[in-house]
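Training component of the fellowship. As part of building independent skills, the fellow (R.M.) carried out the full modelling exercise for a liganded target. The chosen ligand was S-adenosylmethionine. The inputs are recorded below so that the supervisory panel can assess the work.
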Amino acid sequence: MPGDREVTSAGATLLADHVGPGRGRPALDTGTGEGSLARRLHQLGYRTTGIDLAPGAIAAARDTQHGEGPAWHLMDFTSDDLGALPDPAYAVVACRLVYRWTDDKAAFLDRVRQVLAPGGTFWLVTELAGRRQADDLYRHLGISPAEAEILTACWSVVGTADLDVPRCYALRP
Ligand SMILES: C[S@@+](CC[C@H](N)C(=O)[O-])C[C@H]1O[C@@H](n2cnc3c(N)ncnc32)[C@H](O)[C@@H]1O
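Fellow's submitted model of the complex:
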């Protein structure tokens, strides 16, 4: 996955299976980077917003967009006012390859719950520790079992699906 940030067709199929068609409902991609996951949500019919704290990421997301697509906003999801988001609640909140880098994971998840609509889905993609070989340069990208436990606590529905290295979580309040 590092060096290849596009969501694969297998990843897109899992996403579609777990979040369903958008039908114009709002979706939020947190830490969108160049926006690959946000564009997949847009293709599913979600009215999608991609946010990132890095100006370069938002510029790259805008540059790679041709025609209709998500809206892009410069925003730090962990510290900025969530009231600045375009919608008060989202049918899907998505987060791919970001959770690993979040210092206060419980606080991050609290903020996800604040913007997730009732019955909505939190779609999170992350690597897991131990899935790469010991000499793999990217082996540090995986989250620990304790970090996975923090992630999956306090949801009424916890769905998981595995890609070759990353795991996808579909979490519902
Ligand atoms: C490893 S990249 C993943 C990008 C994209 N989600 C993907 O799958 O290709 C992590 C991204 O998360 C962004 N990010 C990290 N913490 C963030 C935060 N608190 N708020 C918004 N963006 C954040 C970084 O700027 C970076 O663009």
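The panel noted the following from the submitted structure. The first strand starts at residue 26 and ends at 30. Residues 5, 30-33, 36-37, 51-54, 57, 76-78, 96-98, 101 surround S-adenosylmethionine (CB under 6 Å).
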